[in-house]
Write a structure and sequence with these properties.
two-stranded antiparallel ribbon, binds FE2/S2 (inorganic) cluster, alpha+beta, five-stranded mixed sheet, globular
């Protein structure tokens, strides 16, 4: 029993959120909504006219899209984000649908939605880290990044990752 409790991740009282575009780092309580954290700290998550014309956090417009690293510092994608799989590749998330659970770094890219110029390189590195260091399963990582397991296997293989045998310890 104590072994199980000892293996649980440390529960944080405060999470640090760094917004790279503004260079600000702010603090919030665990499970705070990322969009609300930005609003409360007067950090702009929108590009151009979408500052005014957005869905106000209902997950419909996609204009609050941001890159978040690491993915383990935020909630898993909700159904409304999974539905936006063409927009939300790699580490891209809808700020309005994301809860902060650990220290994270947030970057807004270009374009109306905020995904223009985003490159998935960081996402690939994080997939490797989750598999090798965190001991996550292929299914867990594929779920987090919304990609099929065979594609994930290819990505890890290209990165030179030695695959664990099914059922082996992490
Ligand atoms: S504010 Fe519209 S999807 Fe987040």
């Amino acid at each position: 029993m104590s072994t199980f409790i000892g293996s649980l991740p440390e529960r944080k009282d405060v999470c640090k959120v760094t917004f790279t575009n503004s260079g600000k780092t702010v603090e919030c309580k665990p499970y705070a909504n990322l969009r609300q954290v930005a609003i409360d700290n007067e950090i702009d998550l929108y590009n151009g006219a979408t500052r005014i014309f957005n869905c106000q956090g209902s997950g419909l417009c996609g204009t609050c899209t941001v890159e978040v690293t690491p993915q383990r510092g935020i909630s898993v994608k909700a159904a409304i984000e999974k539905f936006r799989f063409l927009l939300l590749k790699g580490n891209l998330r809808l700020a309005c649908q994301t809860q902060v659970t650990d220290d994270i770094v947030v970057t807004k890219h270009g374009g109306i939605k905020g995904n223009k110029g985003y490159k998935q390189q960081g996402a690939k590195e994080e997939m490797v880290r989750m598999y090798q260091d965190d001991g996550k399963t292929l299914e867990e990582i594929a779920e987090a990044f919304q990609i099929p397991v065979p594609k994930l296997v290819n990505i890890l293989g290209d990165a030179g990752v030695e695959m664990r045998r099914p059922g082996s310890a992490a």
